[in-house]
Amino acid sequence: MLVFDSSIPQLDVVVLASFLEESVEEGIRYEEGELISVGSMLLRVATVDDSFTLQEPDMQSVPIAWRLGVTQSMMLLRLQKDITESVGLEDEMDAPSITSSLLVRLLHFYGGIRTGLGERREPR
């Protein structure tokens, strides 16, 4: 049972559901609390009323607080996919994990507006 908002394109949900179904058919067994990487997000396997489901981070708490559903994760994945396609880089899309660090440098303060640069790097 996947829980998601009706604003999520049905095709995106079908892709996620198909991935899960195919992996189970190939012999993968998901355990309660196991983490699954989907794009740059982590989803957690949960059981509700004896049904397999997924939870996503609430994106407000550290350590991660989990909530039922995949709405925000699917929206983020769709946004990343649409942006890379819009600039012709869909074949190079490489979504970093939510657990990856992000370096943000303040470049300068101009006219009351701060500008900055964010980049992800491999840990040293």
Task: Note the run of SSEs as H and E.
Answer: HEEEEHEE
> How are strands sequenced across the largest beta sheet?
1-2-3-4
Going by helix content, strand content and strand pairing, the class is alpha+beta
What's the quaternary structure here? single chain
Average pLDDT for all residues: 82
Question: Which radius of gyration do the C-alpha atoms yield?
Answer: 17 Å
Distance between the termini: 40 Å
- Strand tally is 6
Q: Per DSSP, what share of the residues sits in E-state strands of 2 or more residues?
A: 25-35%
Please outline the major beta sheet.
4 strands, antiparallel
What can be said about this structure in brief?
The chain is an alpha+beta fold and 124 residues long. It has helices at 10-25, 71-86; strands at 35-38, 41-48, 51-57, 66-68, 103-110, 113-119. It has two helices and six strands, in the order αββββαββ.
